[in-house]
Design goal:
By secondary structure, the chain is of the alpha+beta class. It contains three helices and eight strands. The protein has an eight-stranded antiparallel sheet.
């Protein structure tokens, strides 16, 4: 009885594999599964540190005590504008990037032809704040120019003369309608 060697080898190929033979760890699923989530946390932590170091947190006030004291002055300036019964109508023309402001006084307070400062303040990013000087064109009508249109969204608006004797502040959504009314204490 002679058995062919090639037949013998083929017959062992159909046998179940030996359970004692273990594959290396890097070819198995579970070690990679268990390493994936801690590895993902490390990568996310490094990305967070890079973002924190490279970005400016413009919300932090360096001299918070001085800023707190300035609040009283701001309130007094707005009360002066209210006593003078000042109101303003603001128009931003997107096509020419011009700003027209009409300043009215119901108490017939003489509106001087001095320069006004219009500040568009971004609620979260200090670097996006815009200060626009407004020149008097005629009695109570002022004009200024924007270098670039502000981003869409909510903005705080303050209007003061150069001598800072009064202040009108409000909030507005950009893009604004054709006219926007500003009044103290809104």
């Amino acid at each position: 009885m002679s058995i062919n060697h090639a037949t013998k080898v083929r017959s062992t190929d159909n046998l179940p594999q030996n359970p004692d033979v273990i594959e290396p760890w890097y070819r198995q699923f579970w070690p990679w599964f268990l390493v994936f989530f801690p590895g993902l946390a490390v990568v996310a932590g490094i990305a967070t540190i890079i973002i924190a170091v490279n970005s400016d947190d413009g919300l932090v006030e360096e001299n918070y005590y001085k800023a707190g004291l300035a609040i009283n002055q701001t309130i007094e300036d707005e009360e002066r504008a209210r006593a003078l019964e000042l109101t303003a109508q603001l128009e931003i023309r997107a096509d020419t990037r011009q700003i027209y402001l009409t300043l009215n006084s119901a108490s017939k307070h003489e509106i001087s032809n001095q320069r006004l400062l219009l500040k568009l303040i971004h609620p979260t990013i200090k670097g996006r704040d815009i200060t626009i000087p407004l020149q008097a064109e005629s009695m109570g009508v002022f004009r200024g120019f924007l270098d670039a249109l502000p981003a869409k969204g909510r903005w705080y608006v303050t209007l003061t003369p150069e001598d800072k004797s009064w202040r009108i502040s409000d909030e507005m959504l950009i893009p604004i309608p054709s006219n926007w009314n500003l009044a103290p204490g809104k």
